[in-house]
Specification:
Shape of chain B: elongated
Distance between the termini of chain A: 31 Å
Number of strands of chain B: 0
Number of helices of chain B: 9
Largest interface: A-B, 53 and 33 residues
Low-confidence stretches of chain A: 98-111
Order of helices and strands of chain A: HHHHHHHH
Radius of gyration of chain A: 17 Å
Mean pLDDT of chain B: 91
Shape of chain A: globular
Structural class of chain B: mainly alpha
Oligomer: heterodimer
Structural class of chain A: mainly alpha
Distance between the termini of chain B: 21 Å
Amino acid sequence: MRSAIAGDQVAYRRLLSELSQALRGVVRRGFAGVGVPASEVEDVVQDVLLAIHLKRHTWDQTLPLGPWVIAIARNKMIDDLRRRGRRPEVPVDLSEFDFEGEDQQASIDAHDVGRVLSRLSDKNRDIVQSISIDGQSARDVAERLGMSEVAVRVALHRSLKALADTYQEKKL
Amino acid sequence: MKTDDLINAIAADAKSVEPPIAQTVAIAVGVGALISAVLFLWTIGIRDNFAESMVSSLRFVFKFVLTLSLAIPAYVLVRGLSRPDFQPGKKLWFLALAPALLLIGIGLELLSVPQDEWHARMMGHNSVACMIVIPLLSLAPLAAVLYALRRGAPSNPAIGGAVGGLLSAGIGATLYASHRPDDSPLFLAAWYPIGIVLMTAIGALIGSRILRW
């Protein structure tokens, strides 16, 4: 995470990918017995990943990363349960923070993706899709669209915030 | 969008990191306090005999000890509450410092002042101004603290907002204390808490609405 905060993209991707697997286990176990569908688990994992990204400056680098990640996951799980009108009691303790070996790929439901992406401008939607799904670099996208690389990065950042806001709205 | 695709997008945004939240909180509180201080000096100003009072009047000094014993613990807590993994736990007892000091102050005052003066001391000269001006001086700090908390990720928005309100009131009360001619702990106990509780409630109310993330 330290390298990621220093801007190391490769280290950041590796960390997020490891965290996503750990989170899948944490969220699934937290929701076990409350009857939350599996698709919802992936929803919350993505919500948590976005929150980790947009709030990573709230991690105190002198403290271990694990409890901070768990705290965010816990908040998002409680939000999710509250949204469904269940009692927001999520028993999460730190001993549960271990890695699950599986890498299940579920997609969030098509309706939500459509809603998020349709809120973005054509250009921003293009940028997000090129970088995330086609795996292009910000520089490639900038060249193709005739924008500066900085402008592409700003557009990407705004789009991620919009995505996080959409999760937030679902809660209201 | 699959989770791995999302991770690609997030990783590409690696360079967008904000300054550490503790720094944001410190700057926001500093700016908020500064705005109120300028406003205060520009309008009502500190009392004429400030330096003299600082040396000669124990009661005057006690007012600052009291308001700072509220503001400083509240600041430490707000800085913690801006992080999602912060567990206030025993640190909440920091907030009991100001009420405890006030009780001691009241006790000493009652011992040193004859009983027939108690009422006059408590009513003071300007209780209405005290109730209005402390919240007014707290507004800029409150806005600044809430802005900083919004950049952060408080686990409990209402508590974050409430302690933010308490901090802003601590700053407002510290400024106002340098003006007031009413120095008796009896006056402080009767009138200061009104503005302080008001700001705490406002902070909790706004916090619960705007500090979700």
